[in-house]
Structures
1.
Amino acid sequence: MFRADKKSNFQGPHQNQQTATAGASKENAKAAMILIHGRGASAQSILTLANEFSDPDLHYVAPQANDHQWYPNSFLAPSEKNEPGLSSGLQMIYDLVSDLGESGIPKEKIIILGFSQGACLASEFVARHPAKYGGLAALSGGLIGKGDHVPPDSYSGDLEKTPLFFGCSNIDPHIPKERVDESEEIFNSLNGDVNKKIYKGMGHTVNEDEILEIQKLIQNVTEA
């Protein structure tokens, strides 16, 4: 299983893409949020979510996927079917976390948020690189690959009670509820503090209650 490493100098389709930023500067921020866009979207589009939070102490950064997709196939496909995009995307998040750390924002002050394909990538990153983060917000997404079932021993490590929010519809056309349930079980086994909400009839979108849950994550890291 690929684990990103800044020393590896990994090169893939996403490594030379631009990132978009908003909010406080890295030097003045109390915390940061990395926002990962979905398939067909952009860094600028996911960054508009920052308008929903309006926290002056937060630095927002959103990477851009090459060709507006992090990997080509369904997140339910075996991981090797989504290379090299998958590993390239994981490396992109790793590098952003590392850069924020070098700027004085440690992992426990970093929230990683993703929607749809971005939520899947964000979830996979946190599961493969367990540590104490400020939080994970996976909106309409779950762990990547391994076919229809994720073996419970696929990941190891300690999330040290990192707060993890999973929000998804019960009828999402792209994200089976069963994969969200499996993701919850695995993150619990990694010592994560999982808050999962399944919304009846929502579809593939973000709702107001999910925004409120993310605001709670932000409040936890900025006021700690």
Note: The mean pLDDT is 95.
2.
Amino acid sequence: MNYTTVNKGFTLVEIMIVVVIIGLLAAMAIPAFNKVRETSQTKTITNNLRQIASASDQYFIKEGLTQAATSDLIGSDSYMKSLPQAAAGEAYTTLFPVIMGFTSLSVSKGDGTFVIFDQ
């Protein structure tokens, strides 16, 4: 009588190798994801600052003033419908100055870094 043994399943070594490979892939993917996320937030903030600068420039040209408050720029019949929502915990200022046709806006992100937009 011949008995043949059939082994089904994975060994502990094979499972450990798969876990190590998954860990290595995660270790490479997470920093790349965080960098893409940070870049996206910075570009969103820059775009928001560009929209605010454009609205304030239109206000400055029309009114001939050198400063604009948020209430002057935002409203249903104003230059902007609403202030952009925060993308990274930033807070936008309520006073937008211009110096000789040059608008410079900056905002502090939630992590303490700054995004600067110069026009």
Note: The helical segments are 12-63, 70-73.
3.
Amino acid sequence: MEQPAVPTRDSVVLSGNLIPYVLSTADALIILFSCVGAGLGYEYLAGYRASDLLPYCALGLLAAFIHISRMSGSGYYELFDSAKPTVEITEVVVVWSMTGLLLAFFAFLFKVSVFFSRGAFIGFYVVTPVGLLGVRKLTKYWLSNALVHDVIGRRDVVILGDRTELDALDQRDMLGFVGAPSAVQFALSDECDPNAREAADRRTLASLSNFVRQNDCRELLVILPWHDSARFDLVRDYLKTVPIAARLLPDMRVRTLTSYVWSARQRVLTVDIQRAPLTAMERLVKRGMDIVLSSLALLFLSPVLLLTAVAIKIDSPGPVIFKQSRKGFNGKEFVMFKFRTMTVQENGPDIVQAVRNDPRVTRVGKPLRAASIDELPQFLNVLRGEMSLIGPRPHALAHDSYFEKALREYAFRHHVKPGMTGWAQCNGARGATPSLEYVKERVKLDLWYINNWSLWLDVQILIKTFFEVLRKRNAY
């Protein structure tokens, strides 16, 4: 059966999200250099000795801040406006004139005008708009060529939709919704037969899931006819398997009924289907805590680890460390480490969970499991970035496959890294899962944690886990 083609974006070298920052930085440099140049030039022509550059740099930075703040408010630096061929002469001159008047007012108010000569200030006031307009003309020429040659794009955005809706997206729509003239697109089937269409759509969605994982995509835009509820349900179910922010775009009928101004700062007429689990800053904070605490734990617990390894080796034949494949963030597999506490080392399609008084548990293994010492090697998984200290506990692959089929919400657990402990475990939902009801309760607690994450919540879970280990509830 033919598989859907996977699109690529090899020609993209610059993200459309960076354009406002690049253009505003260019204007800031023009203003700064104009201020310093005007000051030094005036002093040279007037026969003065070159003075300190610091006051001119301070004046230039203040002027840049005022001017760029005002221009940014009107969308001046956004890709859609910046790519238009007409230079905004009136807007630049008016805003710069207001900037000059504000600078003169501040100089009078704070009595700092003695540090700047009137000639230098007038030169700065006249030269700067010429530089700003000249750079604006050059950037518009460069942007128009970059758009034509597909140099600017978004590698972190994917568009999924009906072929008719995708074809109806013009460059104006793309710049408004995506912030770039193009992005990777996955088109759903246009089969007439419902069964054939659904089968083709599932193949496309599977390819989309693989592409998102392999290319570290951050956002998915969905564009479908708003009356197509069957496809909405299918897409929503697939979204649970990938940790990515997803937004629903207006279809072409809705767009023709609405008049609005595009703005990269204002995502108009979009509906959030799924938010990203954690922001970049939140992931950074959580990762930092994982590295620091797991390193300290391995350092201070090294005597316990050593004695445990010796006891396991003396007690029964077999390796000290038990390795088992688990699913981590975004469904990626990894090998989880534990101290071996059983006579078996199951890691296949059939895995029998431990029960109370399980004969497979070794003599040393019983107290290790009761005190959760067998879990300590997972600090290595945390340091390697495969796990986190706090998160949903990972299950064996065989159990994962069963739970994903039985529970629609189960796949959401892979939207964050699995943890050594979690909100479910410190609330008593630990140990074996003898029935689907146990799994439902655990998934409910895990999803609450994902949707309400905070650094303080992680600290609370660590404290509660300590007391939970002392209680030895469901640990056997």
Note: The two ends are 48 Å apart (CA to CA).
4.
Amino acid sequence: MTESRLYRFFFDHWQRKVVALFSAVILWLFVNHSITDTKTLPNIPIKIINLPADKTVVGLLPNGTLSKRITLTLSGTKDVIQDIEPSDVEVVLDASSVDTNEWIVDITKKNLVSLNPDINLASHITQVEHPDFVIHFSRLITARVPIHILPPIGEAPYGYEYMDIWPTRLFQTITGSEEEIAEIQAKKIQLEIDLSLISKADLEGLKNNVVSGVEINEVSFYIPPKLRKIFIPYREGLEEDINDPEAKNLHITFLIKQWLPIAGPLPIRVFYPLNLAETLNPDSHPLALNEKIAKIKGINVIKQSFYLYGVNKLFLDVVKDSLEIAIIAAPREEREVLEWGLNIVDAHELENTFVALLLANDQPVKNLGGGGLRRRELLLRQRFRNFMHNLALYLRPEHKLVLDAVVEKDSIIVK
């Protein structure tokens, strides 16, 4: 009995039942797609296309989108509106027909581009609302903006010491609006190399620099493209490669730390202040000779070989015959142990020699103009002065020379 009823339920007048079911499905689909909803999407990107060749927009990024984003309120089919996210939508504005410097933008669904292949915005969006939005056009210009090369940060690899970086100035050719170029020039473009990104292995594979056919204890590390990156102030922190052709010559010179021997003896003398001459002078208190101090052809010398550290071999070769130890005379009641220092005699002339030798053997500066050559000279002079500033004598590696010079009775004695 039950089977008979089921049979009649499904098969009696089955044609009408199929039509009714089909009509119900169609009606459900129609009603479902007729239900609308509204959703607000923040931070929607805006791309501008077909800009006039001589114009640009303030805040336009290299990829054609604006740094400024917009909030859109979209109305449309409920099932699509519920699923749509800010990352699914982009606004594209065609500037080919704009003939004013201020463009009051009206965004419609024709300006919407779906970034999600599963969403058809044209078929499902009925209305677009947004805050008032004005785009300001500006004259497009190209300028060479100086790159300020800062002293590196971080520590040099073990066994090496940072000396200097060259070139000291580069330029970036930038195309943008007049306002943005002015802002860049005001904020400055800077390049700062992190020495911690340079490994010891990077430097150990380099050949020592050569001056006048002689290797010296320094190497030049040419900065690879991955480190030659700069940030343009108005471009939202995007990195750019330096486009100055001279960037390929950007390099850091490292000193290879070595203990450099100086064959003794070394001249030693006493400086007698003029205001003390009545009681303290070469006749009343001469430098006493002993097992440490000798006189060679009338010149007082200290009988010892020494080491220098923190300088290069060229510097040592230039100054080694002009080094002397000077002891400063003072009354015993004023200073029990006398001060002393290591001096370079005629340092200015020796600096000239040092710089001339380096410039004569410096390949990167062969084609430099007057200004570049002058900057290179100043850098090398600073290198010489840094060596002078750090100059110290060592009896042996890690053991700095200590002189105990004292006034005793009628002489000055080095103990």
Note: The radius of gyration is 40 Å.
